[in-house]
Amino acid sequence: MSRGRIRGSRRSSGVLLLALLAATLLLNGPAVAQDPACKREAFEEAVDLSAAALRDLTGLNRPVFQIRLRELKDKRGWDHNQFLREAAPIVQDTRTDAFDKESASLLEEIARMGAEGSAAATPDCEALARLKSHMEALVDAQRGKWAYLIGKVEQELGR
Question: Which residues span the domain enclosing 50?
Answer without folding.
Answer: 3-158
